[in-house]
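We emphasize that the prediction below concerns an isolated chain of 139 residues; any contacts that depend on oligomerization or on bound cofactors are therefore not represented. The input was used exactly as deposited, without trimming of termini.
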Amino acid sequence: IALPSLRLLYLLDELNNPLITLKSIGHQWYWSYEYSDFNNVEFDSYMTQFNNNNNFRLLDVDNRIVLPMNNQIRILVTATDVIHSWTIPALGVKIDANPGRLNQTSFFINRPGIFFGQCSEICGANHSFMPIVIESILI
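Result of the prediction step, given as a token string:
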């Protein structure tokens, strides 16, 4: 059993070299982000409380994630309190954030724009108020 398993683990290993690593930390009920490649730039992202013509109700945040397009992006996801789920449907990314565990996935953004997502895990009474916004820019 060990030899076929080791072979599969070797073949499933990701060999891509990401340009940026983003760490996402789920809290009740907001997200924290760290750009660890750039002198540990850290910020919190809360849902905006007001509604005007320039943003989407319950989907816009005060601090957006800014990522370059046409580059491989690695994201590390964890949580501090309960299980959350970091989801961006337009990019095909969904990964669970578990307390005490560091999950990893990667994605590729091939067009500029603004991508919206939310916590898709029932993590408490206000779990629907944990939006995620990625702004993809051309470098």
